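Tip: read the tokens left to right.
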């Protein structure tokens, strides 16, 4: 589970860096896909905690 959380943190940092670096020019579609993946992973982690 810690490994999964580490991956999510890394993905979130990449999204934040892209937004801070490129602003409006950031690839919004790719970020939306990444966020959807992170939501799925968070849901999976949440289910493991139940």
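Filled-in amino acids:
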């Amino acid at each position: 589970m810690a490994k999964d959380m580490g991956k999510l943190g890394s993905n979130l940092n990449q999204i934040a860096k892209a937004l801070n670096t490129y602003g409006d020019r950031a690839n919004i579609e790719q970020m939306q896909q990444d966020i959807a993946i992170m939501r799925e992973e968070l849901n999976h982690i949440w289910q493991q905690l139940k």
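The CA atoms of residues 11 and 34 lie 8 Å apart. Residues 28-49 form the longest helix (22 residues).
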